[in-house]
Amino acid sequence: PLYEDALEVWGRWLFVDIHAQDEVLRQVGGPDAIRFLDLVSPLYEPLLDADGFVAAFAQRRAIHRAWSEFMLEYPLIVSPVWSQPPFPHGWDAESESNAAEAMELLRPVVPANLLGLPAAAVPAGTAAGLPAGVQLMGERFQELACLEAAEAIEVALGVATPVEPVLEAAPA
After folding, report:
1. Pairing mode, if any, of strands 130-138 and 119-127?
2. CA dist 162 to 57, 122, 126, 159, 168, Å?
3. Which of 83, 144, 146, 153 is most buried, with most CB under 10 Å away?
């Protein structure tokens, strides 16, 4: 319920937080992460002012109320982690259009982030040679239900290791 509203509120709220922590993020983020943020941040301007932030908080509460009612009938939501197959490393920081598309790809994880819902991501195989996963999302305080469902999926599918680890000897 109110899925598109959840996406919009999350983006506006997230970039107020990102803007407030810009200096720290630039100290700890790698070049691709900083470039991605620089490319995608303009999509969420102008930033919320104090009144806008309070309104977004109220909207978040309304969205959560709708989700709580929905989850009375559907206590566990199974979805892909991303809305499309995974992309190659660095693709999201190559251009403004790629950065914007990457923000769209993470649609399935946004409600859990916005509403503070427990979620678990489980490997489910590969797509185009890259790992793909399934997300399980539950109502607040239902972490155990998410973990039990994640375990059932892992048992059914087996543990996916799409990339063989390379062990290198430590220099002497």
Report:
1. antiparallel
2. 40, 13, 7, 10, 19
3. 146
| Angle at which helices 31-40 and 96-105 cross, to 10° | 90
Model pLDDT for residues 100-123, shown as the tens digit of each residue: 999 999 999 999 999 999 999 998
- Pairwise CA distance, residues 42 & 96, whole Å: 10
Query: What are the strands of the beta sheet with 76-80, ordered from one edge?
Result: 76-80, 130-138, 119-127
Candidates 77, 76, 86, 78; CA nearest to 134 is: 78
**pLDDT tens-digit readout, 56-82:** 999 999 999 999 999 999 999 999 998
- Crossing angle (nearest 10°) for helices 50-73 and 3-20: 140
C-alpha distances in Å from residue 145, one per residue of 31, 72, 76, 99, 152? 38, 14, 8, 33, 11
For 142-162, how does the pLDDT look when each residue is reduced to its tens digit (9 = 90+)? 999 999 999 999 999 887 665
Tokens 């996916």, residue? 160
Which segments of 3-142 does DSSP mark as H helices, in order? Answer: 3-20, 22-28, 31-40, 50-73, 96-105, 110-115
Instruction: List Cα–Cα distances, 73 to 12, 40, 66, 67, in angstroms.
Output: 29, 36, 12, 10
